[in-house]
Amino acid sequence: MKSKLLPFIAIGAVTGAAISxxxxxxxxxxxxxxxxxxxxxxxxxENRDELMALxxxxxDQAQSLYGTVNNGVQSIMxxxxxxxxxxxxxxxxVSETIQAFSKKDDQIG
Length: 109
Description:
Layout: H1 5-20, H2 24-46, H3 48-108
């Protein structure tokens, strides 16, 4: 038995789009957006070098962002490890302080 889910989803999407096109503002906005997209595609089709430069710039930005995020994550992981070690350090300091005061009390008393 074939699933009818995807065909009905497609029919629903087409029906919804058709109904939304009954609104004049929606039609105008859709036509304007489509014209801008066509103009952009045409421009970059004629100026491939500029498109490649734009893609390279975006790739560099993405790599830079990845590096920044990666460094941030590593820093957080290191801080997490430091925080995990903190209770043992505090316990050690408290023990040393107690011992120091105990020795002073023994010397005084």
